[in-house]
Amino acid sequence: MNALAARFNAIFGADMAGPFAALAAVLIFFGFASPQFLTGATFGSVAFQLPELGILTLAMLLPILTGGLNLAITFTANIAGLTLAWTLQTNGGADAGPAAFLLGSVLALAVGGASGLVMGLVIAFTRAHPILVSLSMMIFLRGLGEFLTRGGDISGFPAFVSPIGHGSIFGIPVPLLILIACVIVCHILLSRSKLGFSTYMIGSNIESARYSGINTRKVLVLVYVLSGVMAAIAGIIMLARFNSVRVGHGESYLLITVLACFLGGINPFGGFGRVLPVFVALVVLQLLSSGLNLLGANQHLTTAVWGILLIVVMVLRWFSATFVKIVK
Amino acid sequence: MRKLFLSHTTEFVLIGVIVAMSVFLGFATDRFLTLGNAFDLLNISAVNIIFAVGLLVVLIAGGIDISFAVAASVVQYVTALALERIGGGGWVSGLLIAGSAGIFLGAINAFLIHRFRIISIVVTIATFNIYFGLLMFFTKGVSIYNLPDWLTTRVIVYEREMADGSWAEITLPVVVMAICVLATWLFISRTTTGRQLYAFGDNPEGARRFGINIGAMQFIAFGWLGLMAGIAGLMQAHYAQEVVPNALYGRELDVLAAVVLGGARLGGGKGSVLGCVLGVLLVSITQNGLNLMGVSPFAFKMIVGAIILAAITLSSARIEKLVPILAPRKPADGEAAARGESR
Amino acid sequence: MSTATDEGANARPLLSLRGINMTFGGVRALKNVSFEVMPGEVHCLAGENGSGKSTLIKVISGVYTPAAGAEIVFDGESIPHMTPGMAQARGIQIIWQDLALFPEMSVAENIAFQTLSGARPRPVNYATIRSVAEEALARLGVSLDVDRPLKDYAIAQRQIVAIARALVGEARVVFMDEPTASLTQSETDHLLAIVRNLSASGVAVVFVSHRLAEVLEISSRITVLRDGALVGVYPVEGMTQSKITELMTGRTFDQNTRARDVSGSSVVLSASNLSRPGEFSDISFDLHRGETLGITGLLGSGRTELALTLFGMRRPASGTVTLSGRPVRFASNREAIAAGVAYLSEDRLSLGLNQPQSIADNLVMASLNRILSGRLISTEKKRSLVSRWIADLGVKIGRQDDAISTLSGGNQQRVAIAKWLATDPKVLILDSPTVGVDVGARAGIFEIVARLAEAGLSIILISDEVPEVYFNADRVIHMEKGRIAGVYDPRASTLKDLEASVYA
After folding, report:
1. What angle do CA C172, C177, C178 make, to 5 degrees?
2. Which letter, b or e, does each residue of C234-247 get, where b requires 16 or more Cβ atoms within 10 Å of its Cβ?
3. What interhelical angle do B91-116 and B120-139 show, nearest 10?
4. Residue B209: its chain C contacts at CB < 8 A?
5. B23 and B63 together in one domain
6. Which of A76, C92, C340, C460 is the one with CA 20 to 30 A from C225?
7. How many domains does chain B have?
């Protein structure tokens, strides 16, 4: 048994055990509880629902690793979506061509990056608390969005946009492919690049990182820019999935992304945590949602169960930490 | 005077900004500097100020709470149902029920934080989802309109007819708010327990070595916020004359921003009741002023957000940090290190 | 000199502990320790880092509860379960090493905090608090504005506040854990006078300090701990510094100076007329290839500020630095590192190393460019770089991925040195490299220093422990109040001369 555990840790890392156990528990429980659970339909719906939340979670993950937080991700996504929507509308609305879409997407990513840039600069140069900086950015972006849209939604996009939200390539949903690409990029970035290395070092002690010659300000700014860009990608997917943009779309995801990060073993103070366990945690959350749905529960009950799951995981972690101490 | 200014910089700056804005708005609009508008401001801000002084206590003790606003929604529902059960009740029973329900929900947070050593932001994000999810699930999102008459009748504590024939009124929530503010002030600055909360937030290990009961501190801080949230919930129901399950959803972050604007520090040990009230008022006055100046309501939040962002940036930035060449300072490195460590 | 009130060795001890055992996560921090304090005596508690001194103090103050079988007797009263409140009520006062003060609260509240503690809520009387605080400060002959928040004061004044706090109420025994660590000599003298006063007025003082000269000067008896066990209790009379060191480490040390003449080799780094207002002024020196240049001076002498300036983290207001003959003006420490200057911080816990992170990550932190393959970090290159340095400097580790905080101080410092050697520096600045390193492990650090210098690396060795620079450097600069007060050749002057001028 110990050898098995050691091999598991060697292959996946010790931080994967929790999320995998939760995954197994969810599959087994709902597999028995509902005959429709272990079917393609469940996995299909999970595959389409996962990406928005997943990419937003990546946008949240990066700042958390530096010991911060980005509460502006959902409204950054909305504003980025709006940017794309207007580019399409000014270029013919439903008749806009792929060039307009491409231009709009680039602009959307730029807007997302700009929101991150402002936050990153303020955080890096003034040392203001990231929660406050991103919170005021969130209030600002929400206000900006509501001001520009007057609370309404914008729709009427060319037909070719829809597959980004609904289409499949070789049976794999396009949004899921985008998510997987983002996960891979983030994973490599964090585990192999200098930026990723510096992110972890800054997260656990920014001053010691600075003394070792890491350009802490540059890293912080880049992390928030990346976070903004990730949020913008989520915004583009949301536009395609709903075929409209509305300020406030996905607002309820905000705290769920934080929950998913903690569930995936990210240290709330920063410095520790990997992308893959967070990805598995996201899958668990979505499977839980689908399973509860099959049992007749609605999204609200699911939200409550997600919260309970986070508490249970944290309590189990506390138990295992105390237990290990006693055994030693 | 100089000493007073140095120890209360945030409060003085806020007062300065509020005075400057008021003077400007007094000239720019006819209505801003009237008694009626001042009373309106208080009536509108009352609920948020009650939330704010509660949250202040948790921030001082070094915690954070995301769940208090949805907890207040839960309290509204529980209170409305309980009042129906006991056949109507009155202000006393209403406040008792709301207060106890609030304290109970706050105590759940404190229990999880203290017993299992989970940091407050994780716990309260979880309870935020649990409270809100369960509330929406059990109520199916349905509002309650048939509240007892005493709860929905506006209570005017003071009124005065203005020259133009309109009435300037102070309503019950303002009085309750004043009591809550006074009670919180007395509690945190005039009782030993309150000072222990400051000490605990400032240096938890130091407080522990002094024999301060850490668990008690958590329960007192989150219990106080729970109590305030319960009272605020009841006042909000009174003000709105209905109970809507998602009416307070999202309020937590607005209140948090206002409290921090008022000088409270995430991480504990710092913050004052006066600053906290001024923080909420500054946000309200901005909105009120923009409204009177005929600015589109959709632009309010944008401008408020920009103001908070600017305020936080300016209050955190010392000029040397923005322009490193002007940095003839010595102990700042140690200070930054201490901050890095305390995280 | 002894201030002990030694009247009758059979007098009843004020505080006595027997059979104290304490275990943390499987590690036995205290093994059957006993400890005794007589009324009014000055007692020294000596031991290396991790020997159990601080743990013992926490047991006495009620912060930790010892394992069953412990016996704590205070003034004839047996106390089976000591709590912080009970300790305070009996006049057991602690001045913690980290002070345990509240920076955001006023000086008055910090000093009179005892009047604020206790579970039962009471109204606060600020007038009483202020007068209590002022009275305590007056006893120390110090005057501070008690209404200002503590954070406005420098560390030395905070130390005073912590001492004043211990004097509030009826103190019977005061524990001082490294009270002089951040004090200047005159402040230390003042503190020692206070300790004598306390002792004369019948208050016992337990003094924990790594400055053995102080210990010998002030105390009457010494209790020595090693590895969590009691070594013995000794009268100070007839004790010497080297004898105490021997008892603490269980080993003997004898030293000769290592100084060599390297003035013939080329100049690697040269500073001329470097100044930064308020920190240091008019500093000029040459550092030769393979030279170990010692810099010593008390706190506030500007030695660390000078080092940070050479390392590019601060910019000189005037003067020039030349590196290998070329003038340099670093915009950041990144440029300094690239040019071949490395700086080992004096504050290993929060600046020198990233404590929660792994040994491997700490070691490669400053030299990431050397382990890239393409644009990504190569796991193999990282592993082999780490293994090479771990072996080269003889660091004892479990696995490379263990947190650096699991290592002892000496091994941590070796990793910190390795981190800088991996950047291939020309100049290595070592700022107080033995702080928090056990006496026994210090020699190992200096052997590494000697070997590096022999291999041609130029080293600046900064320390406020005069013997360290005297025995290990080729030349010693004495800094005082930001200026060079003198340059010494260890071969031509005695340790006494140097100490006399530094501590003058």
Report:
1. 135
2. bebeebeeeebbeb
3. 130
4. 58, 61, 63, 84, 94, 96, 100
5. yes
6. C92
7. 2
C469 within domain boundaries: yes
Q: Are B125 and A262 in contact (CB < 8 Å)?
A: yes
Between B101-110, B237-246, C247-256, the lowest mean confidence (pLDDT) is in C247-256
The total of structural domains in chain C comes to: 1
Tokens representing A252 are 């309820």
In a domain, C275, yes or no: yes
Instruction: Report the C-alpha dihedral over residues B63, B67, B68, B74, rounded to 10 degrees.
Output: -150
Are residue B199 and residue B289 in the same domain, yes or no?
yes
C173-182, C273-282, C290-299: lowest mean pLDDT where?
Answer: C173-182
CA distances (Å), B95 to each of A38, B47, B100, B173, in order? 50, 14, 8, 12
Q: What is the pLDDT of residues B143-175, one digit of tens each?
A: 999 888 888 888 888 888 877 777 888 899 999
Give me the percent of chain B exceeding a pLDDT of 70.
90
Residue C212 maps to a domain: no
Whether C122 and chain B come into contact, CB under 8 Å, resolves to yes
- Token duo for residue B154: 């506006």
Give contacts of B305 with chain A, Cβ < 8 Å: 136-144
As a whole number, mean pLDDT of residues C146-170 equals: 85
Residue A234 has pLDDT above 50, yes or no: yes
Interface test with C, best of B8, B186, B195 (most C CBs within 10 A): B195
Residue C402 inside a domain? The answer is yes
Q: Is B234 on the interface with A (CB under 8 A)?
A: no
For chain C, how are helix, strand and coil distributed in percent, rounded to 5?
35, 25, 40
What are C310-361's pLDDT values in tens digits? 999 999 999 999 999 999 999 999 999 999 999 999 888 889 999 999 999 9
Q: Is A303 on the interface with B (CB under 8 A)?
A: yes
Closest chain B residue to C84, measured at CA = B211
